[in-house]
Design brief:
about 450 residues; alpha+beta; 13 strands; binds protoporphyrin IX containing FE
Length: about 450
Amino acid sequence: MATTTSAFVLGTPVSSIPPVPGLPLIGNMLAFRKDRLALQDQAARTGPIARIQLAHIPVYIVTDADIAHEVLVEQAASFKKSAGLQFLKPMLGEGLLTAEGTPHKRHRKLLSPAFAPKRLAAYGDVMVDETNRQIDRWRAGDTVDVSEEMMQMTLAIAGRTLFSADIRSDAKKVSEGLELGMRAQVESLRSPIRLGYDWPLPRHLRMKRAVKLLDEVVYRLIREGRARGTDAGDVLSMLLLARDEEDGTRLSDQQVRDEVMTLLLAGHETTANALTWTWWQLGKNPRVLAKLVDEIDRVVSKRRIVIDDLAQMPWNLAVIEEAMRMHPPAYMTGRETIEPVTIGGHRMPPGSIVAINIRGIHRRPDYFAAPDTFSPERMLPEAKKARPRHHYLPFGAGPRVCIGSHFALLEAQLALATMAQRARLRPLPLRLDAEPLVTLRPRGGLPAIVEIR
Ligand code: HEM
C-alpha cells in the first residue's frame, strides 16, 4: 500500500524504475512512432512499472493491476489526466472526459442519472431496433466492413437514446471527423515539437477540419433539441434544462456542445470496436460461436430479444467481455501527478506522467492463464468470483471510471445476441493488426462475408 502525505513521501526514487532501452537523446521515440503496441509489450516485459523516454519526457508505464489500482482509485486525488488528452481538447473541449476538479464533479453528477440502470432499461428497445435496421441492410454473400457496420449501428443507437435524433445519415461525416481527429492527436503525441494550435501544421489543420465536420452534427443536434423545447427524457434535454445548484444559471452553449461531442464520440466508437473484435474472435473460434447460437436458440429462439432475457445468457456476455480483455478498446489511459505521491513503492515527483497499460494487464499470464487464448469460460460468474476484480479494467476504475459502462454492456449484449440470432459475419482476413489510435481499432477495418440464418 502506498504511503503519502503532501509534505512527506516514502519510497524509492523514480530513477530506480527500470528503463526500456532506447537511444541517446530521443530515447524510445522511434519505437513509439513505429509500433506503440510493441513498445507497450516491451515495457510490460521490463517490469510492473517501467520507464520509457519520449525525447526528454519520461513516461512510466504501469502493467500491474495493484499499481494501476493505486493510481486510478486509492491515490486518484494526486493525479489529473495526462497531457496527451490536451491534444483532443479542440475536439472534446471541457466535456466529462477531459474536465478536471470541480467542473468534472459537477458534470458527472449532472449526467449520472442518464446512465442509471432504471433509465437504461428504457434504451433496450432502441438498441434492438437499430441492430435490426443494420441487419436488414445485409444480403447473404455480401462482403461488409464489420468495423464500419458496427460504427453506423452504435452511432444510430447513441443518437436516438442520448439525443432523440436520427443521425444515421451523418455516419460518414462523424467517422471522417473522428478518424481525422484521432490521427491528428497521435501525430501530436509522436512529435517532439510543441507549437500552439494556431500554427498551420498539417496535424493542426487536420484537427480543425475534424472539428468542423463534427461541430456540424453536434450543433444540429443541439438546435433540434432546443427547438423541441420540451423534456424528451434524454441526455440532451438534461443538459439544456440543467441549472447550476448554486447560482441557478444554465449551462453555456459551449458547455452543452462539449458534453454532446464527448458523449457522441465516447458513446459509440468504443462499443463499435468491442463488437468488431468480438466478431473477429467468433470467426476464429467456431466452438464459441456454436455455443452462443445454442444459448440464443434455447433462451429466445426466433422471438425479439428483451433485456430480461440477458440474465439467462451468460455466454453472450462472457464472449463480449473476453473480447474486451484481449482487445480493450481503451487500451491505455494516462495520468499526471499533481503532487508528490508514492506508487508501486516509488516516489513520483509532481508532473510525472503515468500510463496504465490496460491491454498489458489483461494479457498478464499470472492474472489470466494462457492469455493469448480466447476463452470466454474465464468470464463466467464462477471464474470471475475466483479472481480479484481489479485484474480486469476495460472501463478503467475509480472516480474517472467510464460513466457509460452499463450502457455499453447492455448495448453490446443486445446487439450481439440480435445479430447472431439472424446472421453471421465471417471475417475474411487470416490475421488482423490492431491500430492504436485513441482507441484500439482493427487496422484497415474487418472485411467479412454475410451469412443469413
Ligand atoms: C465498450 C465500450 C466502452 C469502453 C471500453 C469505455 C472505456 C472507458 C474508459 C477506460 C474510461 C476511463 C478513461 C480514463 O480513466 O482515463 C472511460 C471514460 C468515459 N466513458 Fe467510456 N467506454 C465505453 C463506452 C462508453 C459509452 C457507451 C459512453 C457514453 C454513452 C462512454 C462515455 C464515457 C465518458 C463520458 C467517460 C469519462 C468519464 C469521466 O471522466 O468521468 N463510454 N470509458
